[in-house]
Design goal:
This protein has 249 residues and is an all-alpha fold. The chain is 60% helix and 0% strand.
Length: 249
């Protein structure tokens, strides 16, 4: 079953209500709706009631939604204590979930990659949401949008990782756009600078962030051949405007 070509963030209320009530629907669509509209109580109740909803989606809602929804889950879903649990061996649990302070060995990295490649999409999504730093670094580049987006929803992900992802040219535009929408992450000057300088970042996103940058970074962008011409032009204009106002920042 393929994902529908729809923009979950901007669909109409009528379409949204239809989707959450549709029994024969790709569960990954329901998962994306749950994570996008986590604060919309009635929508989320319909997601919970839908038999196609994945256990890991229920687990996400049980962790991050309102107390009312958590109570609704407890009443409606007796499976919740076990929801979202990947069936892992002890070796796999240590490999995938344990955070390591040291540098990964070549053998460990190869073993990790090989085991992840054998997983289904659903298993990868669960792992992306729960896995350690090494797992996150692999799955953020996964070709499936739902897998890579689940990585940046992992509660253990750090600001340093987000900065590195924002710099990467090996991630999708969806990842970069999602980072830019997160108010906490764009409080970091380094993350904003990384996004604006990344040629993979959608131009509209970069333009919405560029005025945050200081003149030193703007001067670098003005001379850069790796960014869109409109960004170079905008950087030059901002420098000129600030100079005229005596804002030498």
């Amino acid at each position: 079953m393929k994902l529908l070509p729809i923009d979950i963030d901007n669909i109409s209320d009528s379409t949204l209500n239809f989707l959450v009530g549709e029994r024969d629907i790709n569960p990954l669509i329901l998962d994306r709706i749950a994570k996008t509209y986590v604060g919309e109580i009635e929508i989320i109740k319909h997601v919970i009631d839908n038999p196609s909803t994945l256990p890991e989606t229920i687990a996400f809602l049980n962790r991050y939604s309102t107390d009312e929804i958590k109570g609704y889950i407890t009443n409606e879903k007796a499976i919740i204590p076990f929801a979202g649990e990947i069936q892992l061996t002890e070796e796999e649990r240590n490999l995938f979930l344990k955070e390591e302070d040291g540098i990964e060995t070549k053998d460990r990295g190869q073993k990790l990659t090989a085991r992840i490649q054998r997983m289904t999409v659903s298993q990868k999504i669960q792992l992306a949401f729960r896995g350690n730093k090494e797992v996150r670094s692999i799955l953020i580049r996964d070709g499936n949008k739902n897998v890579s987006l689940s990585v940046i929803e992992n509660p253990k992900i750090t600001e340093t990782e987000i900065e590195h992802i924002a710099q990467s040219r090996n991630v999708s535009e969806d990842i970069l756009r999602t980072i830019a929408k997160n108010r906490e992450w764009i409080k970091s000057y380094s993350v904003v600078n990384s996004l604006v300088n990344n040629p993979k970042t959608p131009v509209g996103v970069s333009l919405s962030l560029i005025n945050v940058l200081k003149n030193r970074e703007l001067q670098s962008i003005e001379k850069s051949k790796g960014v869109a011409s409109v960004l170079r032009t905008t950087a030059k204009r901002l420098i000129t405007l600030r100079s005229a106002k005596g804002q030498g920042i």
